[in-house]
Every structure is written in structure tokens, then in C-alpha cells.
Amino acid sequence: MSQQEDARNHVLRASIDTAIARLTNSYDAGGKLLICGNGGSAADCEHIVGELMKGFCLPRSLSSADRNQLTKTCGDDAKFLGEKLQYGLPALSLVSHSSLITAIANDIDGDMIFAQQVWGIGKAGDVLLTISTSGNSQNVLLAAKVARAKEITVIGLTGRSGGQLALLCDVLINVQSNNVATVQELHLPIYHEICRSIEAHYFTK
After folding, report:
1. Assessment of whether the complete model's pTM goes beyond 0.85
2. DSSP state at residue 86
3. In what order do the strands lie in the sheet with 153-158?
4. Residue 10 has what pLDDT?
5. How far is 184 from 66, CA to CA, in rounded Å?
């Protein structure tokens, strides 16, 4: 590995670690993660939510106190719920609400599908993860701008240049490719690493 490649990997690792720290700080303060992207990146948004809202690599069984609370309120279903429920880390994919997205596109503007949601449900201390291979998707850029206005941390997951999104991010994770398919393939191990690390932070016994 060349010194240049080693330096790039060091910067990438530092950005990933910073993103993990920002997310854990948000969760510690009662915040949530919002995620947006288009096309293949939209699928990544839902993938990430799936890793955070239930167990990924570690068990997330309920505590005795929470099982007891279920016993008090859930009757015959308490035992089943106590055994099956898992702790989740609050995460919302902004690509998943088809009725809302189409209403925003029809009634307001198609470029507003993510920005309107950030404005409606985001709060200071939350985190917005923006995924864009080019870094230039207008609907993602507008969501990032609204997030900054609401004091929401913006993390960008992009290709090499970062595009216009790079200027709006508190943390930029830009992989070293401009090829769309390659960028998407490189994004997956990065967000898996983020999800694994955050899960380990909260659920390692």
C-alpha cells in the first residue's frame, strides 16, 4: 500500500469514527437518526434502519424491569412480548413513506420530499445521514440545508468528490471512487461498521 493510499484510509477511518461518536452522542441525549437517499441509496437507508431498530450482531433482550412492566399491562401476551421484543436504536428512513412523499411531490415540489420531513420531525440534537453517490442530489442537498437550520448534525456518505454535499456536512465519509456501482458497494461495509459499533456501544454486556 502506498503512503497516499495509507493516508486516505486513515482519513476515512477517522471520518467513520467521528460519525459513530456523533451518533452515540445524539442517542445519549435522546436524539434519533434520519436517513435519506435516492435509488440504490434509498435501499441503503432502509437497510440501515433494519440494522439499528432490532438486533444486528448482538442480542438486545429486555431487562427484567421492562419484562415486569409488560406483565403489569399486557395480560396473556406479556410472556410472548417479553421474550420476543428487542431494544431498538431510533432510526427513520425518509424514503419509506410513499403516501407522504407523493403528496409532497404533488402538492409542494418533488425536490422537497426529504426537506419537508426533516422540517416536520427533526429536532436539534438529531442526526441526518445523507447518502448520495454524487453528492449533488438536489432533494438531499435541501434536506441537509434544513437540517443545519434546525441544528441537526449532517453526516454525508458519498463518492470521492463529495459534491456540493461536502460543504453542508459536519462529517463527510467519501469513498475513493466516482463509479456509481462501486461507490454503492463501498458504502455497505462502512454503514455496517457504523451499525456494529453503535450496537456494541450500547449492548455489549
Report:
1. yes
2. B
3. 91-93, 33-37, 127-132, 153-158, 171-174
4. 85
5. 39
